[in-house]
Design brief:
This protein is mainly beta. It contains no helices and nine strands. The protein has strands spanning about 5-15, 15-20, 25, 30-35, 45, 55-60, 65-70, 75, 85-90. The strands form three sheets. It has a three-stranded antiparallel beta sheet, with no helix packed on it. A three-stranded antiparallel beta sheet has the order 3-2-5, with no helix packed on it.
Length: about 100
């Protein structure tokens, strides 16, 4: 089931570290994590185990979706799925 209040859900196989602005959590096989829509929280997945890890990312691929990365100088623009958007620096200059 996809919950409409979440921007994305990641499900882990094996062991990965889910790192957010709030800290880190270990995700084991079968664990899921997600964010409510509109929450500003930088996040990434890190495989520190040395073994191969698999993840499943579920999202809407809404062409109007846009946002920014809190930890780097990058934003993604509406239209990135249709080819009319893309990635830019926060001051608007293209990469």
């Amino acid at each position: 089931m996809i919950l409409p209040s979440l921007e994305e859900i990641e499900a882990a196989c094996d062991q990965i570290v889910w790192s957010t602005d709030s800290g880190e959590e270990i995700l084991q096989a079968g664990d899921c994590a997600g964010f409510p829509a509109g929450r500003r929280d930088g996040h990434c997945l890190q495989n520190r185990s040395g073994a191969e890890a698999q993840i499943l990312v579920v999202g809407s691929r809404n062409n109007e979706d846009h946002g920014e990365y809190s930890d780097i100088d990058m934003v993604f623009m509406p239209g990135r799925y249709s080819g009319s958007g893309g990635y830019r620096r926060k001051d608007g200059t293209p990469y």
